[in-house]
Amino acid sequence: MKRKSQSVLRAVGRPAATVSRPSLSSLSVAHGKRVRLWRMLYAHGVRNGTLAVLPLDQGLEHGPTDFFPNPTALDTNFQFRLAVEGDYSAIALGIGLAEKYMKEYCGRVPLILKLNGKTNIADDAEAVSPLSAGVEEAVRLGADAVGFTLYVGSPRQDYAARVAEELGADVVKLHEPDEDNARSPEPYRSLREAAPERLRRVVRSAGRVMVLFSGGVKQDNDAAVLRKVAAYMEAGATGVMFGRNMWLRPFDAALALTRQVHRILSRHPR
Amino acid sequence: MKRKSQSVLRAVGRPAATVSRPSLSSLSVAHGKRVRLWRMLYAHGVRNGTLAVLPLDQGLEHGPTDFFPNPTALDTNFQFRLAVEGDYSAIALGIGLAEKYMKEYCGRVPLILKLNGKTNIADDAEAVSPLSAGVEEAVRLGADAVGFTLYVGSPRQDYAARVAEELGADVVKLHEPDEDNARSPEPYRSLREAAPERLRRVVRSAGRVMVLFSGGVKQDNDAAVLRKVAAYMEAGATGVMFGRNMWLRPFDAALALTRQVHRILSRHPR
Amino acid sequence: MKRKSQSVLRAVGRPAATVSRPSLSSLSVAHGKRVRLWRMLYAHGVRNGTLAVLPLDQGLEHGPTDFFPNPTALDTNFQFRLAVEGDYSAIALGIGLAEKYMKEYCGRVPLILKLNGKTNIADDAEAVSPLSAGVEEAVRLGADAVGFTLYVGSPRQDYAARVAEELGADVVKLHEPDEDNARSPEPYRSLREAAPERLRRVVRSAGRVMVLFSGGVKQDNDAAVLRKVAAYMEAGATGVMFGRNMWLRPFDAALALTRQVHRILSRHPR
Amino acid sequence: MKRKSQSVLRAVGRPAATVSRPSLSSLSVAHGKRVRLWRMLYAHGVRNGTLAVLPLDQGLEHGPTDFFPNPTALDTNFQFRLAVEGDYSAIALGIGLAEKYMKEYCGRVPLILKLNGKTNIADDAEAVSPLSAGVEEAVRLGADAVGFTLYVGSPRQDYAARVAEELGADVVKLHEPDEDNARSPEPYRSLREAAPERLRRVVRSAGRVMVLFSGGVKQDNDAAVLRKVAAYMEAGATGVMFGRNMWLRPFDAALALTRQVHRILSRHPR
Amino acid sequence: MKRKSQSVLRAVGRPAATVSRPSLSSLSVAHGKRVRLWRMLYAHGVRNGTLAVLPLDQGLEHGPTDFFPNPTALDTNFQFRLAVEGDYSAIALGIGLAEKYMKEYCGRVPLILKLNGKTNIADDAEAVSPLSAGVEEAVRLGADAVGFTLYVGSPRQDYAARVAEELGADVVKLHEPDEDNARSPEPYRSLREAAPERLRRVVRSAGRVMVLFSGGVKQDNDAAVLRKVAAYMEAGATGVMFGRNMWLRPFDAALALTRQVHRILSRHPR
Fold it and tell me: I need a surface site. Which of A31, D16, D17, E56 has the fewest CB within 10 A?
């Protein structure tokens, strides 16, 4: 009992400037959930406790124009092949794509089944994000996790992180917070943070929830993409969830970039 | 396992300008659903993997004025007789018409039971489309499929196609997209596509979901109707769902036009 | 099989100017429902396949002022006695009145249990019509039918008729359509119909749903009331549902008028 | 059978100016409900088929300011003691007060459990009245009745009475209708009624539903309170439901006034 | 039976100026609930029937900016350690924090599981406070109580207290009412109360519901915090629920202040 108290003491006393990533072994999760998280953290991807997830819900959320730069990516085989050949920790998509395209890839890459989503046609303010599947479908499809999208509706990504923790998430996907303070309310407006501090503040705010950062719109410059990955991992993220920055590249380029991402993740074992 | 990977590779590498229609044999569907899809694709209609569906929900959706040009079509026997004598792949209507008129036609034409619908009286913006039947009623009535109407509310039919795929549809009915780009948002406004390209883009966007195109308002010119059918099939559609263009013609004319549609579909086996 | 097809052929080919009323024997209904419809069509009322229904929901829908012209009608015994002594096909009311007043009349007149209704206090536009009973209560009370009120909200009664058919009603109560075309949308505005044509159009639009016409506000002139009944029956209605035109008359006058209505209905056997 | 018809005939023929109160023995109610109504009508209170009910929901509905004139009434023991020592037919309150204060009074006074209620803070127009208990809680607490509040939202108390009857209430609590016709719609505005006529109209409108009148805001003059009770009973009410006019008086004064109310009720056996 | 009546008499007759706190032994609660309340009142905290509860939901309700003055408090270990080392009666937080951080503290401090909560991003007027857990989760986590937040939306804290009692709460957390009468409606505006009277009025309004007062925004002055605690307890509160005034202090300062709070509570046994 003594040792536990001390470890807590140390945790409380640690300087706020560094963030220690949550490790699976230290989390309080049931056996079944531990098995499924382990599969994504240590049996797929870089296998060192990091996560490289390939998401595909942009067709529903933004519409098919997202695929215009690379029409071959409209065929979901593209993403499944990339996930398998690129050895991703998981692929994240909805029930329609999972049922239609997963057959050849079953077991070769973990599935994160997205439970909800919405089109961008309705006005954002009134948008609802209806459920298209539930945990039962996830079990039937052999998924290792489910994804549920909440709209915290704020540039303050640290708030989204905290909400995820207080509501009980295991992993949360966030965006890199904007550096434009002018439009933010106080006390954010007065913050003078370099990008790394800003990222660390967000990760710290997620507490024991593992943080993934998304890649956002496609950047053509490979080095810029990799700099982002490195920055996120150094800030304490558990991994990345880059979609368009991967599958809007030609297949071989996407595969090559994926391998470079893996190289960065491999420097952050836990 | 080797062959499967290769077929995937080929799929990814195929040129975007041609669209290969999904075939029943290649789809991942449970046995029961395969039986029911097979019945419509290969045991009725042209029996070559195409679909000619006769829809009848205009009385509910638009009101009885739709029947004013051909009052005999107000009697649902007209549509059932046309579906049977014209050898349609299926007839699509709601529970009220199915229960009242199907008796003499049971087994002679597959039924697609429409589960929801709405009148055009309420303002479109706030319209809800309440359920009038469920899967249980469909089973009781011996239906081979159910139809559910979603209002994606957009001239961008490729978006509707993608939504259908991501949410898990097997078949989607779409409209031919409008060529008026001026009212569309970017990047649609800048697209310079001939009609066939536009149709192929929509079909491609549906991925492994079979696409039916609807006929819309009645055209008096038979040749124009047939040109549309040909164009849709050449763009990769699995079939057509023409209602008013069929049953607003006198019975014998509707039957003759149906046979010409079959002739076009017979050139697109799969 | 031959004969059935022919009867269908004849149905399709019949001139639109006459309307043949649906007959119970030709309808596709389950045995239990056939028993209950038969009881109202052939074991009560005129017993020739017509329906004379006495409705009582005006106290809820309009308020007690509806009874001001004949305060004795506020006592539901008035309507039950009139229904029994006047030999109505059924009485139609809600669960409160059925439970409190039906004891002495059980079995002597069929009950149509109204399942929903609303007061006129809330604004019509936002009005909801909550359920006050369900099918289980109807069975417990020995009802032969249930009534559900839909607000199609339109002067176009043919639309309401069609909606009733597409949603699966067995009997629909409609109002005589207004002849004021000026306020109607096209193509109604351009219609030049005499009253009988207008009624026939509405009845035809109901297809195999039996049509009852309501009487609306009280008319003091007996002959005018009877002319309406005759017109409705000649237009193809299965019967009438007159409330205030009956029970706002003194009991003996209501009884006498009821008998004259029966005489008209007796000329329309089926 | 003969006698029943006659009694019905008499009921229909009775002059509208007098109102005969519904008697328990003549009502169609199941055995269990008859037991519970009997307990309030004949085993508690005046025991002659009248009802004297003590309500306590003003703290929730109006807020604690209702108790400012008599702070000792804030302690629910005040009302329970008054109900027991004053021999009320029932006490009516919600689950919170019932659970916390009923222990010493169990069985000594029937409980009417209020199932819903709302604060007066939200705007009345949008107010919802959420459920705080259900029939299961009522059974667990040994209640003899449940109370459900409907907002008919009208000065026309006869409408509320009719709605209660059509929806199936056994007892309805109403307010004495206002004599200010100017703000009422027609035909109410044109009514020229003395107060007794107005009350009788409301009671008649409730049909076989027993009517209780509430006392409203506190009146200091005992005689005025008693005149109201007498007027209500003479108009055909089954009883009264006076809260603030009782428990905002000092305990002994409330008890004395209660006894005078009982004396009036004792003149109206049934 | 005699003694009980007398104790009731005394309760009714007691002067309104003093408030006697509800004692667990006198409350009507089921055995299981009594066990759980006893654990918080007599087996943890000051163990004399008072409650010192440490709340942590500010991250969800206000966002992470609440932690900016003391970033180490962002790690929930801070609050759990404070609750255990400071011997609080209970810690109150939501399911996410309970599941992730409670492991080392299980059994060492009672858990009050918060069932609902909302972010401050949506406009307060339309805010909904969705459920994030239910009683089943509370049982699984070994919680001794659940917390449910109602928005009575009023400066009149006595109303919130009464609502809690009428709806059936066991314990209610309130804020100290504002002394600014100018913005309040009558009769509050005319009240001339010193702070102690104001507090007593609120506590009295809660009846047999135990009252906790919250601490609100952080005050740097320790003596001011303790004066508030003393005032609350003297007004009849059962305890306090101070969050930011505790865990926004450095750990040792928070612990020292907690002990001074305990000293005040120890003077109010029951």
Answer: A31
Give me the residues of C, 199-258, that contact B with CB < 8 A: 204-205, 207-209
- Report the percentage of chain B scoring pLDDT > 70: 89
In chain B, what residues touch A58 (CB-CB under 8 Å)?
Answer: none
Q: Cα torsion for A165, A169, A175, A176, to the nearest 10°? A: 40
- D to E CB pairs, distance under 8 Å: 88
CA distance B118 to chain C (A): 9
CA dist., res. A161 & res. A167, Å (int): 10
CA distance C188 to chain B (A): 8
Touch between chain A and chain D: 3 or more Cβ pairs under 8 Å? no
Alpha carbons within 13 A on the beta-carbon side of A182:
1
Measured CA to CA, the distance from residue A74 to residue E268 in angstroms comes to 71
Determine whether the interchain pair D104/E208 forms a contact, defined as Cβ–Cβ distance below 8 Å: no
Report percent pLDDT > 90 for chain A.
79
- Residue D266 to residue D210: CA distance in whole angstroms: 17
Q: Do C167 and B77 touch (CB under 8 A)?
A: no
CA distance B39 to B47: 9
Q: What is the pLDDT of residues E113-131, one digit of tens each?
A: 999 998 887 655 555 788 9
pLDDT grade, residue D162 (50/70/90)? Answer: very high
Q: Cβ of A121 and B159 within 8 Å?
A: yes
pLDDT tops 50 at residue E12: no
Which residues make beta-bridge pairs with B214?
B241
In this complex, do C12 and B251 lie within 8 Å of one another by their Cβ atoms?
yes
CB A200 within 8 A of CB A158: no
Check: complex ipTM more than 0.85: yes
Class of the CATH domain delimited by B6-10+30-265: alpha beta
Q: Do C132 and D8 touch (CB under 8 A)?
A: no
* Average pLDDT taken over every residue of chain D: 89
* Sequence-separated (6 or more) residues with CB below 8 Å from residue B12: A72, A75, A77, A78, A81, A251
For chain A, domain boundaries: 6-10+30-265
C and A: touch, per 3+ CB pairs < 8 A? no
| pLDDT tens digits, one per residue of A86-137 | 999 999 999 999 999 999 999 999 999 999 998 887 655 555 688 999 999 9
Q: Are C51 and C210 in contact (CB under 8 A)?
A: yes
Name which of B5, B166, B169 is nearest A60 (Cβ-Cβ). B166
CA pseudo-torsion sign C175, C176, C177, C180: negative
Q: For residue A248, which of A214, A215, A218, A213 has the smallest C-alpha distance?
A: A218
Q: Mind spelling out the 3-state secondary structure of chain E?
A: CHHHHHHHHHHHHCCCCCCCCCCHHHCCCCHHHHHHHHHHHHCCCCCCCCEEEEEECHHHHCCHHHHCCCHHHHCCHHHHHHHHHCCCCEEEECHHHHHHHCHHHCCCCCEEEECECCCCCCCHHHCCCCECCCHHHHHHCCCCEEECCCCCCCCCHHHHHHHHHHHCCCEEEECCCCCCCCCCCCCCCCCCCCHHHHHHHHHHHCCCCEEEEECCCCCCCHHHHHHHHHHHHHCCCCEEECCHHHHCCCHHHHHHHHHHHHHHHCCCCC
Which of these ranges, B46-55, C107-116, D115-124, E171-180, has the smallest mean pLDDT? D115-124
Residues A35 and A145: their CA atoms lie apart, in Å, by 11
pLDDT digits (tens, 9 = 90+) for C172-215: 999 998 877 777 788 888 888 899 999 999 999 999 999 999 99
Cβ <8 Å between C12 and B77: yes
